[in-house]
Amino acid sequence: QVQLVESGGGLVQPGGSLRLSCAASGTILRAYAMGWYRQAPGQQRELVASIASITGGSRRNYADSVKGRFTISRDSGKNTVYLQMNSLKPEDTAVYYCNRVPSREDYWGQGTQVTVSS
Question: Contact at 8 Å (CB) between 35 and 62?
Fold first, then answer.
């Protein structure tokens, strides 16, 4: 059974930074394209960052709204995917989830709340 557990969220002031972690069990993250998604209140879930599999060259892609501020990475030894978020804005406030790309319904976890506010 695959389990993805997100952590690292919290309350941060505008301009601050957070690093989110996604620890996996039951699957090997480097074998698949992985992504960080977010869902703000009243909005649809959106993909903000992705990293291709090892065989896919680990290419990274970002939504325009986070490009230059967020960085996705993977530690294969720890079977964990990270999202480094810098220069946070109030509009980054959302619940953040990790999942494969494309996503699998049975892989959604609880997510981690990120709130950017002064």
Answer: no
